[in-house]
User: Which sequence fits this backbone?
């Protein structure tokens, strides 16, 4: 863990329609090789913020973004979207492996769907390495050519993480990755995230405070589109500066 | 008091039974024609069906008359109709399937746009246009304008127009059933739009698309009216799409008009019915076994 920010968010505002802001003037910096948790009650803009970081909002043309996000000093809006999404991977709330592809094809989907030609041996390496890092290899090595949708929910989610890290991204965005999973699958994913932060920078949206407390190094608390408080998780949880953070952490709303 | 309650319950359960009986008899009335049709076709048509029924062209009146007089099976078959139907259906599919798929994709991608909703309502209108009118249109456009005479091409175009709305709507509906997460997954991998469509969304919705296509095929296979005005019919096998061509439903009409060939009507109808029915069953089983969505 270093103290150099890999990602700087600078006065970012996001609106779905003119005058209605889902994210208001958020500025923050994200440390490299750490897990940063974005917390807050439903509708506080945490997912919207996360999705802006790899420009997923461009899927919906009505969304308007002002301000800037810098990846290593370079504005993400100056990087071609395809390249950006290779540097910043994403994992979603519900596991979403491609239903028409096998486990193997799912892991290398980022390459094949982008017409990046690889030798079979290279592909095999990528698949094995990615599946090993998500601790799925031993479970699926004999069924690599079955459809990914045959796996259990937790396995599917780990497959999706493998798909996202197959590109060796710098940052991994996780949008409530365990909210659709049972407690055992959740704890596996949490352990996995602890391992993954050695190689990647993780940004985790969660509405589960104890999850944020368990695994994150830094936390950001958002409320009604504003970034209320940010800092080391331990400090934020034990000694919140803002009364709204304190109210949220003690369960007064959320 | 207890008596009144018991009476009430009694009356209600009798009413329930009467109502149930009414519904069941309605459903029986619905299926009776289907059984009668199938039984009739089998009894009267199965005698004519043999190998030469599929390999030989339709007989002329004289052959048929002699055979009927001698109590024999009418010689000849429906090969000219089979070949004509095959060519026209293939050509119509080649025209309608890509166009329909593309239109369906467009409508799905631009749900809210004004132009898309205009296209959508026009497609619905097209579905309601009587097939004979499509025949007249194809007659004016192709028979008069392009091939200068009745032709299989004109027939194919009329059939293609009939297929279009079914394919367009089924494509749009199938694509809308794909969860948005799948789109987001490929978007997050930086996959370009056309690649996502071709490699992810269309394969994922394959069974739905196939069902729509099969249904549209079974719809046009039995169409007679537009073909009367366009491909007209021919006694021999015709492979030239600029020339008049026969089709199975056209043959049924021809046989019907010839008093000596009545039994051919039954056998040709039996064949067409079984073929269309199996297409329907096939499309149902595909949509039942859909794996992805």
Assistant:
């Amino acid at each position: 863990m270093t103290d150099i920010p890999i990602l700087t968010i600078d006065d970012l505002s996001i609106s779905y329609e003119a005058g209605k802001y889902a994210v208001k003037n958020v500025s923050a910096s994200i440390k490299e090789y750490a897990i940063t948790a974005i917390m807050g009650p439903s509708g506080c803009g945490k997912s919207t913020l996360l999705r802006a970081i790899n420009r997923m909002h461009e899927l919906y043309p009505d969304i308007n973004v002002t301000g800037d996000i810098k990846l290593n000093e370079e504005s993400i809006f100056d990087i071609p979207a395809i390249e950006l999404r290779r540097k910043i991977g994403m994992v979603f709330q519900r596991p979403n492996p491609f239903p028409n592809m096998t486990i193997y094809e799912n892991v290398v989907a980022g390459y094949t769907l982008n017409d990046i030609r690889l030798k079979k041996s290279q592909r095999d390496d990528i698949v094995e390495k990615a599946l090993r890092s998500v601790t799925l290899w031993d479970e699926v090595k004999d069924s690599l050519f079955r459809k990914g949708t045959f796996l259990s929910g937790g396995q599917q989610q780990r497959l999706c993480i493998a798909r996202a890290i197959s590109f060796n991204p710098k940052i991994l965005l996780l949008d409530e990755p365990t909210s659709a999973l049972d407690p055992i699958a959740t704890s596996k994913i949490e352990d996995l995230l602890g391992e993954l932060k050695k190689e990647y920078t993780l940004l985790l949206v969660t509405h589960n405070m104890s999850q944020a407390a368990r695994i994150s190094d830094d936390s950001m608390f958002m409320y009604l589109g504003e970034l209320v408080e940010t800092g080391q998780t331990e400090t934020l949880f034990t000694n919140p500066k803002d009364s709204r953070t304190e109210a949220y952490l003690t369960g007064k709303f959320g | 008091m207890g008596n009144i309650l018991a009476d009430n319950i009694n009356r209600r359960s009798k009413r329930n039974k009467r109502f149930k009986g009414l519904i069941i008899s309605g459903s029986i009335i619905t299926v009776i024609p289907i059984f009668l049709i199938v039984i009739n076709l089998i009894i009267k048509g199965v005698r004519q069906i043999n190998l030469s029924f599929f390999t030989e062209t339709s007989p002329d009146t004289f052959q048929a008359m002699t055979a009927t007089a001698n109590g024999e099976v009418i010689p000849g078959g429906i090969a000219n109709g089979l070949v004509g139907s095959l060519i026209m259906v293939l050509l119509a599919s080649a025209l309608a399937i890509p166009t329909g798929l593309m239109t369906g994709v467009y409508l799905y991608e631009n749900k809210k746009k004004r132009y898309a909703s205009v296209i959508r309502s026009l497609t619905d209108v097209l579905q309601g246009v009587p097939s004979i009118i499509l025949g007249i249109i194809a007659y004016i456009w192709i028979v008069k304008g392009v091939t200068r005479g009745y032709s299989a091409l004109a027939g194919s175009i009329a059939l293609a127009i009939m297929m279009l709305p079914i394919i367009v709507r089924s494509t749009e509906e199938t694509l809308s059933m794909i969860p948005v997460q799948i789109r987001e997954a490929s978007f997050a991998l930086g996959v370009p739009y056309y690649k996502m469509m071709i490699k992810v969304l269309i394969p994922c919705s394959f069974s739905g698309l196939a069902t729509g296509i099969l249904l549209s095929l079974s719809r046009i296979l039995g169409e007679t009216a537009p073909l009367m005005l366009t491909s007209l019919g021919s006694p021999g096998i015709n492979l030239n799409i600029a020339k008049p061509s026969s089709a199975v439903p056209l043959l049924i009409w021809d046989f019907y008009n010839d008093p000596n060939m009545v039994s051919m009507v039954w056998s040709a109808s039996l064949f067409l019915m079984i073929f269309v029915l199996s297409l329907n069953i096939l499309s149902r089983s595909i949509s039942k076994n859909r794996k992805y969505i």
The two ends of chain A are 31 Å apart (CA to CA). Chain A is about 35% helix and 25% strand.
